[in-house]
Design goal:
- 29% of the residues lie in helices and 29% in strands.
- With 202 residues, it is an alpha+beta fold.
- The chain has a domain at 5-13 and 23-147: Gcn5-related N-acetyltransferase (GNAT) (Aminopeptidase, 3-Layer(aba) Sandwich).
- Strands 1-2-3-4-5-7-6 form a seven-stranded mixed sheet.
- Strand 4, helix 4 (130-144) and strand 5 form a beta-alpha-beta unit.
- Helix 1 crosses helix 3.
Amino acid sequence: MSEHPHEHGPGDGHGHEHSPGPLADASVRRARPNDAPAVGMVQAVVFRDAYSGRLPDDVLEAFDPEPFARAWRESLTHPPEGAYRLLVACAGDQVVGAAATGPSQDPDADPAWGEVSLLAVHPDARRQGHGSRLVNASVDLLLEAGADAVTIWLPADDDGTRAFLTGSGFGPDGAYRDRVVSPRGETMREVRLVARIAPDEG
């Protein structure tokens, strides 16, 4: 998992209200290599939607499904060492969301911290519980891998995703960073949210 702006994304805590049709069978499962094109499409659409107005236009235009799909196909075909996993949320057979988990890459992280490095639900599939299912499944995976806390980074002004994650048990721990988001050196402030997931002792 490289440290690039597109490695981190918002969940389904915000977006346009709409009247969803009948809810197809909803599920979360581990991604397979042939899911890569669908994950790439979801990631590109979500990032363009989420970062519109936050990132320069030339950066938004770089959020293209094909490079995302190629990167996911490579990582799913040849998984990196460690507890890295990609989950997909499905409505019936259609992939509508994704979450990537792994060890925290933060310099100040405890060895037992895990990270959700991607959390994305297609705008047309929001308000249907996919984000919550992805978060819950991600936490379960990281708990099985021995994590006692989970972190996620998000834009400092993304109040919708922050509210969604707060409702899921996350809270800011005071950490922030200014991520370089363009070749010209423009930055975007991000904040870290943490959820403690270790079982209570005793």
